[in-house]
């Protein structure tokens, strides 16, 4: 058998793997759970924070939906909305980086893969950053790093806690070293926040991988995660090929990481706001905000 025939045979017999958390949709009125196949009225699914009532599957949600679930109505004040990425390396693969940015901005209505701002949650002040996987897989480039750093520095100055909702494939390769620099920059801002004895909470959602996992996603005072969230640095196949051994079932899930001490708590999305309020109160957060 030739090498070409061998490769074609491997491709033909390769198993199909589901990589999305999105519910299946027909006419837009109904949604089918990708886990248990329960068909529900879409408005009912959204009313339950996009969590399946049949099996508890957490469907992926975008940044506006996430902010609406966490922030008190009308309290979110966005920051740095004018920051937009450039193409410093003139990167081009099958399509140019500039084209990818423009397409993502048009399809999502966002400037980049994170939304940041100051809000209140259950009456308590909070600096909130929400990554959006729709924008180039939530990848971390210069704008994402700058916006999160500014958010943390503002929170330190105002002496309020920080919550970052992580949803990312990792560092953005089209920006090269400029993207990797953001890992250290955000981590440095978090260290100054910690030295001020202020609370930082990351919420790890599906997926949290690569350079995001290797930096601010794992630096929380308490690390929270959603059920069955994919969390890791390298992919499963890369690790197995490197170690030349089979990894345990459920490896890189939130439950596996909790059982092995990398995640402190798994919180259902429908209970997250109440849990967040309890944690903020427990750590001394008050309703007044320093000017």
UniProtKB/TrEMBL annotation:
Gene name tied to this protein: accD
Annotated GO biological process: fatty acid biosynthetic process; malonyl-CoA biosynthetic process
Zinc finger (C4-type): 33-55
Quaternary structure and interacting proteins, as annotated: Acetyl-CoA carboxylase is a heterohexamer composed of biotin carboxyl carrier protein (AccB), biotin carboxylase (AccC) and two subunits each of ACCase subunit alpha (AccA) and ACCase subunit beta (AccD).
Protein name: Acetyl-coenzyme A carboxylase carboxyl transferase subunit beta
PROSITE patterns for the chain: COA_CT_NTER
Function: Component of the acetyl coenzyme A carboxylase (ACC) complex. Biotin carboxylase (BC) catalyzes the carboxylation of biotin on its carrier protein (BCCP) and then the CO(2) group is transferred by the transcarboxylase to acetyl-CoA to form malonyl-CoA.
Organism classification: Bacteria, Bacillati, Cyanobacteriota, Cyanophyceae, Synechococcales
Organism: Cyanobium usitatum str. Tous
Coiled-coil intervals, chain numbering: none
Example GO molecular function: ATP binding
Highest taxon listed in the record's lineage: Bacteria
Alphabetical list of PANTHER family matching this protein: ACETYL-COENZYME A CARBOXYLASE CARBOXYL TRANSFERASE SUBUNIT BETA, CHLOROPLASTIC
CoA carboxyltransferase N-terminal domain: residues covered: 29-291
Keywords from the named record: ATP-binding, Cytoplasm, Fatty acid biosynthesis, Fatty acid metabolism, Lipid biosynthesis, Lipid metabolism, Metal-binding, Nucleotide-binding, Transferase, Zinc, Zinc-finger
EC number, UniProt record: 2.1.3.15
GO cellular component: acetyl-CoA carboxylase complex
InterPro entries named among the record's database cross-references: AcCoA_carboxyl_beta (IPR034733), Acetyl_CoA_COase_Trfase_b_su (IPR000438), ClpP/crotonase-like_dom_sf (IPR029045), COA_CT_N (IPR011762), Znf-ACC (IPR041010)
